[in-house]
Amino acid sequence: MTTLRVRSATASVLTILLTVAALVSAAPASAAPTATAPAGFTAAELVGPYASDVPPTGTYVPVLDGFDDLRRNHPGVIAKNLRTVQQINASATPAQRADAIAINYDDRLVSLSSALGDRLGAAFRGLLASGKMPKVSALAAGDTARAGLPLGTTLIEKEIYDNPRPFVVAPRSITRSDRPGGHLYAELVNSGSYPSGHTNMGYWKAALLAYWLPELGPQIIARAGDIGRSRIVLGVHYPLDVMGGRIMAQDIIAARLNDPAFARLIDAAGVQLRSQLTAAVGEPLSTFISRDRQYLTTQQAVTSHRTDLTYGFDVLRPGLKNSIPPSAAALLRSRFPRLTDAQRLDILRRTAIRSGYPLDLAGPNGGWVRIDLAAAYAARP
């Protein structure tokens, strides 16, 4: 990483910090809740600042930096990275292409809502659109969602790694798919590919949504995997970009949940979400979910997501030693509320893939790529 790139990244950090401060400080103070307008967060609650707003090193490079090693030392992995894009892009069905286009333009929270089931997903989208879940919207809706800002956008990391996208590297072998009058490829041609921003946002929003609705955790996490794969279908990202986006997303939400002040916001939004959904469907959520048409069964969700963890890459370093980061245990607190964090961490370790796949790192910054959150949500204590 050159000095110029580090300086540029530092400037980006300052720009994002100023942007988020302006966005959240401009939010109006919450009105008193009414039957039609539930209370949102106050501007002071959104501004914070919070300890989890900025990672310890200022960027997420420490947990993502397995990519530089692959570029320097493992040309075979990089070559397979492109071949996999070409294969997935070429074999995509019309339905997969249509879903990928919709995901590109929709808010990731809306894209994730299909995982809730036919009727519950529709109820969720209706509540979101009508402003009846303002706390959920503040934390997880749109590109300026507070849980992801100020440093969860991938803008800094993309600038640092500066990796050209598949459709730029191999234009003749990538089929482009966009809506009429769309601007997808023109917007992305000069931006770096690693890590995937759509995937990052899809996974951290999925981790929050699963935290709020743990009974549908495997399905929600599997849908996040679909969001990542959609970027490969379009030929705008590689598998390693998607894997990197997932790594970063898990680190972001684990940090939020381990920050007691911010975790209070997450819990308050979850209470509002469940209350509004229950009122909308007119019966306990567990009953409604049992009668809804599922996006996937739990087993289907776990199986689907497992394939998205490695994209067919082989283990690169069989002897690599690391463990699941202890902070990740917080991801399962709502799923296993009676367990300790040590017991939740054990579930993450039991359901994880083995160490040594591409992007896995030794030491305290490693282990993130190994987490299989869909399997962990489906696990028994």
TrEMBL record:
Classification via CDD domains: PAP2_acid_phosphatase
Matching SMART domains: acidPPc (SM00014)
UniProt KW Acyltransferase keyword: no
Catalytic activity of the protein: a phosphate monoester + H2O = an alcohol + phosphate
Secretion signal span: 1-31
Main location: periplasm
Superkingdom of source: Bacteria
Annotated compartments: Periplasm
EC number: 3.1.3.2
Family per record: Belongs to the class A bacterial acid phosphatase family.
Protein name: acid phosphatase
Organism: Gordonia soli NBRC 108243
